[in-house]
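ok trying this again, last paste got cut off
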Amino acid sequence: MSLKQAELKRKHSLADFTTIKIGGEAKHFFAVSNIESLKKVVKNCQDAFYILGGGSNLLVDDNCIEKCVIKLGDEFSYIKQDKYLEVGGSTPLSKVIRYASVNNLGGFDNLAGIPATIGGLVAMNASSYGREISAYLRGVEVMDSRGNIINFKKEEIVFSYRRSSLTECIILRVWFEAVKDYDTKAKINNFLKTRMSKQDFEFPNCGCIFKNPETRPAGFLIEACGLKGLKKNDAQVSLKHANFIINLNKASYNDVDYLISHIKENVHKKFDIILEEEIKRWA
């Protein structure tokens, strides 16, 4: 299969695939439906590709993206339950949350409301309200940049705060412990209610921009610098949660980048803390 054969016939702006609705066109965009096609695309891209999941925690340049962009299709979006809970890498978290609610399974309730795929969440070791997604993880199956399929047990993966050793891999499927919790539905509702009350869902955004330093939350530091509501054209530091930057209408990559730089400079000047970005950037 050639790159041309795998490319989408209709050209899509990457803004359509990001939660902040910012991004230029991909020079080569591939919607891959099965393992064999994925292997061929990965080998042809020669290690120069991005994997597109749910599009959250992602800021894409407005210019053309030269690297290949690969999006996993329906074959990689599923849930199976046997001894463990097996979840395909491109499965939306919302689908897993619904399954957990119906089947009284714990371990995901604290993540409810995050617009992401399981592969992306595991790769970044997503955490919320004191628990990481890796807490109940048992193993993963990945494809490396050469098209090789590798299985890792949890013990073979390095996890830390909002980071893992899987960031250079394509996560194909994940296994979790199937932990029974008959209060799951109530917990999901409570976490959703809390998230909706504290975070900004009114306008497109890419979630938290910065990781929380060890001392104090990034949102607290940004607000203490008086930066809530700061605007650059149609990009604005959220009035609801200072660690969010929202797209009021037609914000650009450069608008958001300006605000990020301004926040870093002010927080460093006031608190002598260098904020580390949680978002991924494509350029």
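PB: full thing came through this time. The chain has three domains: 3-74, 77-185, 200-271.
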